[in-house]
Design goal:
Elements (H helix, E strand, L loop, with lengths): L22 H4 L20 H6 L13 E5 L6 H12 L2 E6 L5 H16 L5 E6 L6 H5 L2 H5 L4 E6 L3 H4 L2 H5 L2 E4 L5 H13 L9 E2 L1 H11 L3 H17 L12 E2 L1 H8 L11 H15 L3 H13 L4 H16 L5 H16 L4 H14 L5 H14 L60 H17 L2
Parallel strand pairs: 1-4, 1-5, 2-3, 3-4, 6-7
Helix pairs in contact: 9-11, 10-11, 10-12, 11-12, 13-14, 13-15, 14-17, 15-16, 15-17, 16-17
């Protein structure tokens, strides 16, 4: 049985697909083996596989009566709903959370019940964007799910915990679809280029054009195939399109750019552009040019740079460039790095931008950075004398007999909790590593530190 051959399909309600249909529709998988990604949901014996694959005769296994598919756009939610109906021979009905109402839901359920009563096909009810259904509309689904009058497949891009009613969610199996990887989408492109349902070898895709297309798609399979179709059409309509060695028109980078009106970002994550843009990004934050920093951030985001890498650079800049002039910059950067790991793209771009703005506009000081490097240099040069006896550990038996801890003055017993005594080894007594600036919060640190050092010298 072929979903894409309307003359042979026996599954009522599935949309007919012909040669004029969009590429993304023509390339919709006909079997689980063609589904990209989602390996965690397709393991043998998984609830989704039980729904898609019909049970063997005499089998007592029970498939879930309803599922909620939650995932980003273009990850296969609609495809899985079609496969459930196609492979099981059930009737398929699709409703949209945007255009359908309670009346539509009740009509579908009533028809499904009549068919069951007369020995007809079971019904798969697919509701796209179910999060757009009101509470009343979702409540109308409860009896049909409870009594298994339909097999409900609801798709949403929003967190079901907040967008789907608790009663409906408790009666459904929640399956989370993961974003497609770059390799997943790449495989779909290659299949579409060669498959008879797709472009059937009419064009080839240049490597740099493929990479640009993958960046534009951002893990969305439907978007990737839509862009490929537009670019292939542009290449086939251009008389001067350069063919490959076999005479097949090539979809090159310029063709993709022209087809989607989005210029490619020259940014190779393993090449010079990566290091040049990253360097300019850091130096722009250091130089307090927030607009330039945001520009380089945008270039990295559009080019598909790992947002966690960007977040790490911002954390380093907050510590190295801002330092104690604004200690809250590091807090912002660390919070941003944690949020980026939690949220992911595309929303992570907003979090990264906020952190960049904070770091770029904050007062700057590298005093702490220079201080630790100077201290490390002295240690590596051999300047690491014995710890003064009064600072040594005096808690073990016999320590005090050899002078450990003798003469130590407890800081909290002194005014302002600062007491004059020697802390550094003899060789480094009086050395200064930290020289605070007069910028931002560090100005007040400098004033306090001057008083502290005067007290420490007064022994």
């Amino acid at each position: 049985m072929d979903l894409f051959d309307a003359t042979t399909s026996t599954t009522e309600g599935l949309p007919e697909v012909d040669a004029a249909a969009p590429l993304a529709v023509r390339m919709r998988p006909r079997a689980l083996a063609e589904v990209a990604g989602q390996r965690h949901l397709l393991a043998a014996g998984s609830p989704l596989r039980r729904l898609v694959e019909p049970a063997e005769e005499g089998s007592r296994r029970a498939a879930p009566s309803s599922v909620v598919l939650w995932g980003p756009p273009g990850t296969g939610k609609t495809t899985l709903a079609y496969l459930i109906a196609l492979t099981s021979g059930r009737r398929f009905v699709e409703l949209s959370g945007v255009t359908s109402g309670v009346k539509d839901v009740r009509a579908v359920v009533a028809d499904a019940r009549r068919r069951l009563a007369t020995g007809g096909q079971e019904t798969v009810l697919f509701i796209d964007e179910v999060h757009r259904f009101s509470t009343t509309q979702q409540d109308a689904l409860l009896p049909s799910v409870e009594n298994r009058w339909v097999t409900l497949v609801a798709a949403t891009t929003e967190n079901p915990s907040f967008s789907v009613n608790s009663p409906l969610l408790s009666r459904s199996l929640l399956l989370t679809l993961q974003p497609l990887t770059t390799d997943d989408v790449r495989g779909l492109l290659h299949r579409a280029l060669a498959d008879e349902r797709g472009l059937a070898g009419a064009v080839t895709l240049a490597p740099e054009a493929e990479e640009h297309l993958l960046r534009l798609a951002g893990g969305d399979a439907r978007k990737a195939l839509t862009i490929l179709e537009a670019a292939a059409g542009a290449a086939l309509e251009t008389e001067d399109a350069a063919p490959d060695q076999d005479g097949v028109p090539v979809v090159d980078l310029a063709t993709v750019e022209r087809a989607v009106d989005v210029a490619a970002v020259r940014y190779d994550r393993a090449g010079d552009q990566h290091y040049d843009v990253t360097s300019a990004f850091i130096k722009s934050m250091r130089g307090s040019d927030v607009d330039a920093a945001l520009h380089y951030l945008a270039r990295m985001v559009v080019a598909g740079e790992d947002p966690r890498f960007i977040a790490r650079r911002i954390v380093i800049a907050a510590a190295e460039e801002v330092g104690m002039a604004d200690p809250s910059a590091l807090q912002t950067a660390v919070a941003a790095a944690q949020a980026v790991a939690l949220i992911g793209m595309p929303e992570a771009r907003i979090i990264l931008a906020e952190a960049v703005v904070h770091v770029a506009t904050a007062p700057k000081s590298n005093a702490a950075y220079r201080a630790i490097d100077a201290a490390i240099a002295d240690v590596r040069a051999g300047k690491a004398g014995p710890v003064p006896p009064h600072l040594r550990d005096a808690h073990y038996a016999g320590a005090q007999k050899i002078g450990h801890g003798q003469g130590y003055r407890y800081a909290h017993d002194a005014p302002h909790a600062v007491v004059g005594q020697q802390y550094a080894p003899d060789e480094l007594d009086g050395v200064r590593y930290y020289d605070p600036s007069d910028r931002g919060y560090e100005r007040s640190v400098a004033e306090r530190l001057a008083r502290i050092r005067d007290t420490l010298r007064d022994r």
